[in-house]
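agent> Task received from the user: take the single chain below, predict its 3D structure, and emit structure tokens. No templates, no multimer pairing.
agent> Plan: (1) validate residues, (2) run structure prediction, (3) serialize to tokens, (4) report one or two observations.
agent> Step 1 OK, no nonstandard residues flagged.
tool_call: predict_structure(input=
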Amino acid sequence: MRNERTKTIHINDMCQNHSFLSFLLVTKKYYELISRVSVLVVFISVALVVFFSCTINIEIMNDMLRSLFSLLVPAYIGVIGFLFSGLALMSAIITQKALKIIDEQGKIKSVTGILFSCYYCGALILGALGFGGIFYLYSYYQELYKQTIAFFYSFPGVCIYWIIVFFNIYLTIYSLLYTVSLLGSCIKFFFVNVKYNDKGKDITNRPE
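)
tool_result: status=success, residues=208
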């Protein structure tokens, strides 16, 4: 187990990973879900769910979230465009010389983690859109069959409703915060490139 954690990964190893899951396991990005920011967003989401469930009825909540969802869809499409631009920019920033030195020092996993952040953020946005769609359908059928199907307004049905609301709030806030954090990743990536380019010059200029 310890050997797997400390195993050095090189570019050739990364070329064998093509799926989202394989990159997720290599970069261990799933730990982001238990980071301080994620935990804070969980508490905020729970607080909002409790507040809304105690102060407004389900019909008003449906109108609020549907309006929010209709605004977020085009915004998320714009964010996905930003992710493509950010990934292209970071890929263009890194030079072959710097990448070679990083690979020789066995630190390619860190570079992959920074690049994979865009992919990971895209998955968060896809999850937010997915739960938004689930909420939209659930609330639609909830109102459509409220006179004929008692389940939607029973205790289990209401619990499912607020769980869906929780995931909508959580994924919306977390994905937006994570997108903003990618700006810091771009800055970090720039200085990593500068650092290893300078190392490459030092190695080239070193007398034999």
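agent> Step 4: summary for the user.
The chain has eight helices and no strands.
agent> Done.
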